[in-house]
Amino acid sequence: MFSLEYESDAERLRQAARLLDRENARLITENLRLTRENEQLKGLDPKALELRLQYLEEQLSKARQEMYGRSSEKLERPAREETPKEPQTGHGPSAQPSLPVVEVIHVLDDPDLICPKCGKELQEWPGQFEESEEVTVVERKFVLTQHKRQKYRCQCQSCVETALGPVKLFPGARYSAGFAVHVAIAKYADHLPLERQARMMKRDGLRVTSQTLWDQILALKTVCEPLHERIWKDVHGSPVIFADETPWRMLKSNDGGRWYVWEIASHRSACYRILDSRSKEAALKILGGYQGTVVADGYGVYEALARDGPGFRLANCWAHARRYFYEVRDRYPEECGWFLDRIGELYTIERDAVPGVDDDTLSLQGRRTRRLEQSLPVVKAIRQKALELKPVSTERHGLRQAVNYLLNQWDGLTVFLDDPHIPLDNNLAERTLRGAALGRKNHLGSKSPRGADVAAFFYSVVESCKLNGVDPARYLRDAAQAFLTGQKEFPVPHSYQS
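Given the sequence above, the corresponding structure tokens read:
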């Protein structure tokens, strides 16, 4: 019997997908027909019936787009006329400045050292080679290191001294701090579950359980715990921060297991907390005491906190406002196309401006001037168009939702005009949440609140390192060494010098 679950043949899967798509289209049409008949039998007003059917068609169209459409929200732009370029023959080999170079000299075998013309023996031509490069792999190797601490004694037999050994994550630890870093990076940077790591290590000769691996990363987190608070304070010290949240599963939980990863980030640090709700109280634990500007999506908790809570200013995200029009662009191409083009103009203006949040005063003033001269007229036009469409769009659900969202978020959407530090969107937060989202997909979440704390710690370190181009493995190794040898402080990633 044919089963999609176990089928691996690409052609058969394509055929099955086409059949399912045709069947899905037939069921959609049949569903609309039956809905129309049902509402007519109920005596529904014809105009209300048409609006109801239109709403259903929009929802079905959106569902099809989510299932079969492209995940990218980029629009197809008309090709620009450009000067013809010479066709490229290839991108060439990638430079490998970080790889060690191992030189291998190849020589002729004895039978080949005879000249085919005269029969005399070939002589080596000093310094002459035909050279090429090859990237190869050296297999990973686990080593059982035996540490022998030399003992010393005095001839008087009253004094015995022993040489110091390596620092350990905890007394009696059998695995090195470097091993714990390796496991942590594999899980929280490369998203490999511990069970999968244990199987991979077994193939390389190391027999270890996933529980042992967990013990190592827990010990590493305990040693390096001060880093979490330092990164947290570093983010809170930024004049502009980004906030977002995403679901997280708590596997052994009596409350349904629906927890959330809360994130705050700046352009140089990202910090996470995993909490059991998405409420205002949870958000207060993340943003409590912050004084500055928070860039966020349209989730109402942020607006409530900005209005009633710590006193930060809220800047809303143009990418989220754009998304509402993008999702219904096929139903209302003229109106949505106009908004998408105008929002695209705002991004073009920003792209042409001098980027960066830590620019000098002259660059910041230039961006402010550019926004007032070029972005402000576009923003005014967008608002005017939305106000004109608002009464009309009440009959068109998808367009109404997009227009209402835009107008409801308007105050926060225009904050960027007054402050050159503030970007147009919250995309930085969404990018730095991808690591946690991939981890949630690969290892499903956490088994306990303690596991959630460990995940929040390592995601904070790893994502902050990524923002600054720092190798997270080297950073964690140096941090562990520093704390284990008695240092009280260690720099956050953007201040770290390896």
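The chain has a mean pLDDT of 86. Try to locate this feature in the token string yourself.
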